[in-house]
């Protein structure tokens, strides 16, 4: 990916005389919102700090939630700085404009964008720093900089003398950053593209990595919140007399999102909470049950053909001249994120400021969330990001930060809020349930037309309330609601166009003459958010299952059918052929097993998968997944394989078990017994092949998810002859 | 009420309600944060510790059950210098992604290897079946456990020779 923004580097000597390189995007410069720690050891807007004692700090602007930024981004800067990645000490970024994701103009981690958006700027920052250190050494030695070399954190004199980067930091900091440092050609890479360990593995294997839930502050107390069982209900009244009589209880009070119980210990807060009696006002509460959401979608689809999102040829004319018209509807449920670390956050309100410690994917939105529920402005809020025990999109929504901020503002002591697993499951912001209506025209043994009507909500409708103010942090708080509304109206200008419902549908890649892709925008009132691979997760199932149906209708082999229709897309074709070869597609599987195939591009990454599955003892059994992936240049092959494999398991979990349902507006599922995750006993053999490529790297955190769901469904069709058009899949349709 | 338990070799006397889950005693009273809260119902294994050498779900174990007994946590198996062989294998194989479940995974694996030094794949899978990983690191967990078992076997072979 090429950034259109002109980047520039600023250099400064920090108080201690260390070399600090700050890299800014010109599109954001001039916006002064950066919070600066009082502690001058930390330089808020620096990417790279080299101290006099030769410690190299790298500020990680994208959070680490398992996807490997801690290792991947550090490797980028290490490569050009010419120092072992393991020597560098990454630290999590505070909120500052420099750390915004240039694609979203927000400081958030998501959309499989971290590596792609860091690829050029971080390498350039490392290269600039290295050149400045070399220039400083050349000045010391009074020689031509071109005669110096570097190696693992040292500048080398031709006669064998050397100076380490720390020794040179002060002098280098007085120099000028090169405008356009040359980047190493790939033949000279030492660290990029090599199999290397993860820099955070040791901390995570010893239990010393600090997650949000592990934050400990002096005199800290604990909060739990009782929330409305039905979304949209509010507190009508409550009786806390029994709660207050429980040991350790410090306070009980209403906040916007429910009733907070604060105690000196977590378990005491939980036990006391059980004594709380709340009367809910349910006039505006969600009331859906059973199939009501899907019925609502079907009615909406009947009433409104939807907005045209892509049109080629004339689908209607194709229908009139077709030999046959094939139709199918696919129904997909709400899904929970189920991060293993439940939602939690810690806050401390003192001296007119609030400090937050949170496992969050969007620290600048966390500031807005605090400002919304307190009398503070965003500039009075500091956010410390920790390791995240899983994100998958859940931690883009800051509801848990709002809660802890509201509690801290009243309690005025350090306070940690922890959600129970039941609360985490029932008060999630879900992957939306979606309906897909598909229609295709067949003529002379081929496909002449493809119509896809996506039916369901848009995520930005739910998110813009916090996102829009974060983009205009100087806006007064009374404008937040307005900004949210304006953000929606000015979609594509003030906020990114919301493609969450249609991504993966509008970019239908196969060669078909008549295309008609539309979105019927309707919302059932259930809170929703991004979920690993977002719209691709449901559009992948619809597109690749319907493709399979068409192959079957035409009596064609599902692999060959796709192959012929994708010949014009070389990267699609290459992964498709590789996956088929890996799975030995042309040889029959063992008795009782069948194979299904799917091909899908998401987040710029091309993935093809073949699933081999069967039914054993009344359960679906996945034996093998063969996956070919093209994600451009590979920074860390091990991380790529991990992410794709993890995505496959995430997708299989959804395909086999994933379903959040409602009964009179309340979520039915609560914990891992009724919202199961795939266990090691169900682990298939997974093989991932990475295509060699010199294209700009694209994301890998999400693209493994979408194809595995239809590939499994297609395998079950091959096995049973029964087409399943509703998720989760069942052993007997 | 006061109760006494031994955690990682240190005997501790605590004044705490005896129905408090062992997990919160370990984490908040003793400050050992390596043991994680995942589900509170013994379903995910993130809170796995050893009680007299056997793996238990500390989220569902009242602290009274640990009274007078010996508890080992992830911190307790980490040597003062270097790493436990399983921790080293976790680093070498790059097992952790988000890492949140890994303390529990390692504690379960450590118990497996304590009574079965060279388990087969099926035994590893069976032993690890109670530990969930949302990131999907299972294949690397199996590989890492196997590598420790294989080293042990090689060690035994050398001892025999």
Automatic annotation (TrEMBL), chain A:
The name this protein goes by in its record: Isoquinoline 1-oxidoreductase
SMART domains from the UniProt entry: Ald_Xan_dh_C
Organism, scientific name: Marinobacter profundi
Record keywords: Signal
Gene3D superfamilies per UniProt: Aldehyde oxidase/xanthine dehydrogenase, a/b hammerhead (3.90.1170.50), Aldehyde oxidase/xanthine dehydrogenase, molybdopterin binding domain (3.30.365.10)
GO molecular function, one term: oxidoreductase activity
Pfam families from the UniProt entry: MoCoBD_1 (PF02738), MoCoBD_2 (PF20256)
Domain Aldehyde oxidase/xanthine dehydrogenase a/b hammerhead: 206-284
Entry keyword tRNA-binding: no
UniProtKB/TrEMBL annotation, chain B:
Short name of one Pfam family: Fer2
Keyword Iron: yes
Cross-referenced PROSITE patterns: 2FE2S_FER_1 (PS00197), 2FE2S_FER_2 (PS51085)
2Fe-2S ferredoxin-type domain mapped to chain residues: 1-77
GO MF terms held by the record: 2 iron, 2 sulfur cluster binding; metal ion binding; oxidoreductase activity
SUPFAM superfamilies linked to this entry: 2Fe-2S ferredoxin-like, CO dehydrogenase ISP C-domain like
Keywords carried by this UniProt record: 2Fe-2S, Iron, Iron-sulfur, Metal-binding, Oxidoreductase
Cited InterPro entries: 2Fe-2S-bd, 2Fe-2S-bd_dom_sf, 2Fe-2S_ferredoxin-like_sf, 2Fe-2S_ferredoxin-type, 2Fe2S_fd_BS, Beta-grasp_dom_sf, Diverse_Oxidoreductases
CDD domains xrefs: fer2 (cd00207)
Top-level taxon: Bacteria
This protein's name: (2Fe-2S)-binding protein
């Amino acid at each position: 990916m090429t950034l259109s923004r002109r980047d520039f580097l600023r250099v400064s000597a920090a108080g201690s005389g260390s070399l600090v390189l700050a890299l800014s995007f010109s599109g954001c410069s001039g916006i002064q919102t950066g919070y600066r720690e009082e502690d001058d050891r930390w330089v808020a807007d620096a990417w790279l700090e080299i101290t006099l004692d030769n410690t190299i700090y790298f500020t990680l602007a994208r959070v680490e939630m398992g996807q490997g930024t801690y290792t991947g981004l550090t490797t980028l800067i290490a490569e050009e700085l010419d120092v072992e990645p393991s020597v560098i000490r990454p630290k999590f970024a505070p909120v500052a404009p420099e750390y915004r994701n240039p694609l979203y103009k927000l400081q958030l981690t998501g959309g499989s964008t971290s590596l792609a958006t860091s690829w050029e700027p971080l390498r350039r920052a490392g290269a600039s720093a290295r050149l400045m250190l070399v220039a400083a050494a050349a000045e010391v030695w009074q020689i031509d900089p071109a005669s110096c070399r570097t190696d693992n954190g040292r500048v080398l004199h031709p006669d064998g003398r050397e100076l380490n980067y720390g020794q040179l930091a002060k002098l280098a900091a007085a120099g000028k950053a090169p405008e356009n440092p040359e980047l190493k050609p790939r033949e000279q890479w030492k660290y990029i593209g090599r199999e290397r360990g993860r820099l955070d593995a040791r901390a995570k294997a010893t239990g010393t990595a600090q997650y949000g839930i592990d934050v400990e502050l002096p005199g800290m107390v604990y909060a739990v919140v009782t929330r409305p069982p039905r979304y949209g209900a509010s507190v009508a009244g409550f009786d806390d007399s029994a709660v207050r009589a429980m040991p350790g209880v410090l306070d009980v009070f209403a906040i916007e999102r429910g009733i907070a119980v604060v105690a000196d210990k977590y378990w005491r807060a939980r036990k006391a909470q059980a004594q709380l009696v709340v009367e809910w006002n349910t006039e505006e509460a969600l009331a859906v049950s059973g199939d009501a959401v899907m019925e609502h979608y079907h009615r909406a689809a009947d009433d409104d053909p939807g907005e045209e999102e892509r049109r080629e040829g004339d689908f209607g004319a194709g229908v009139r001249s077709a030999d046959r018209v094939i139709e199918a509807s696919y129904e997909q449920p709400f899904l929970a994120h189920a991060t293993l670390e439940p939602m939690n956050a810690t806050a401390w309100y003192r001296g007119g400021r609030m400090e937050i410690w949170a496992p969050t994917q969007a620290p600048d939105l966390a500031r807005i969330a605090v400002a919304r529920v307190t009398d503070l402005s965003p500039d009075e809020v500091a956010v410390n990001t920790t390791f995240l025990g899983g994100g998958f999109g859940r931690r883009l929504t800051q509801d848990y930060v709002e809660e802890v901020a509201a509690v801290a503002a009243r309690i005025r002591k350090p306070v940690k809020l922890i959600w129970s697993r039941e609360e985490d499951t029932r008060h999630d912001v879900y992957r939306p349930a979606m309906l897909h209506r598909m229609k295709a025209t067949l003529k002379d043994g081929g496909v002449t037309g493809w119509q896809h009507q996506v039916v369901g909500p848009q995520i930005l409708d739910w998110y813009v309330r916090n996102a829009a103010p974060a983009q205009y942090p100087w806006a007064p708080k009374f404008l937040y609601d307005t900004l949210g509304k304006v953000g929606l109206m000015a979609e594509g200008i003030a906020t990114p166009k919301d493609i969450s419902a249609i991504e993966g549908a509008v970019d239908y890649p196969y060669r078909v003459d008549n295309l008609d892709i539309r979105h019927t925008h309707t919302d059932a009132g259930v809170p929703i958010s991004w979920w690993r691979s977002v719209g691709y997760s449901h559009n992948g199932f619809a597109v690749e299952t319907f493709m399979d149906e068409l192959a079957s209708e035409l009596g064609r082999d599902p692999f060959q059918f796709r192959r012929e229709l994708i010949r014009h897309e070389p990267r699609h074709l290459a992964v498709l052929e590789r996956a088929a070869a890996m799975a030995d597609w042309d040889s029959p599987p063992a008795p009782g097993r069948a194979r299904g195939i799917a091909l899908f591009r998401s987040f710029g990454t091309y993935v093809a998968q073949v699933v081999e599955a069967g039914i054993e003892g009344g359960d679906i059994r996945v034996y093998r997944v063969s996956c070919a992936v093209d994600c451009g240049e590979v920074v860390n092959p091990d991380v790529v394989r991990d992410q794709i494999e993890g995505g496959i398991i995430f997708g299989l979990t959804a395909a086999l078990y994933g379903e959040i349902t409602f009964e009179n507006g309340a979520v039915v599922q609560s914990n891992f017994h009724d919202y199961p995750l795939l266990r090691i006993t169900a682990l298939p053999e997974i093989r991932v092949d990475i295509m060699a490529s010199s294209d700009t790297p694209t994301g890998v955190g999400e693209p493994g998810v979408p194809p595995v769901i239809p590939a499994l469904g297609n395998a079950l069709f091959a096995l049973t002859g029964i087409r399943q058009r509703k998720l989760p899949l069942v052993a007997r349709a | 009420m006061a109760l006494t338990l031994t955690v990682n070799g240190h005997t501790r006397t605590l004044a705490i309600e005896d129905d408090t889950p062992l997990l919160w005693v370990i984490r908040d009273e003793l400050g050992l944060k390596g043991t994680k809260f995942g589900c509170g119902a013994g379903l995910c294994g993130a809170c796995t510790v050893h009680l007299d050498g056997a793996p238990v779900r500390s989220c569902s174990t009242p602290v009274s059950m640990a009274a007078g007994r010996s508890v080992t946590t992830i911190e307790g198996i980490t040597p003062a210098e270097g790493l436990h062989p399983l921790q080293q294998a976790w680093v070498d194989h790059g097992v952790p992604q988000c890492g949140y479940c890994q303390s529990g995974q390692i504690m379960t694996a450590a118990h497996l290897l304590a009574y079965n030094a060279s388990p087969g794949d099926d035994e590893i899978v069976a032993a690890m079946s109670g530990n969930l990983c949302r990131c999907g690191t299972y294949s690397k967990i199996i590989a890492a456990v196997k590598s420790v078992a294989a080293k042990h076997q090689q060690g035994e072979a050398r001892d025999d020779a």
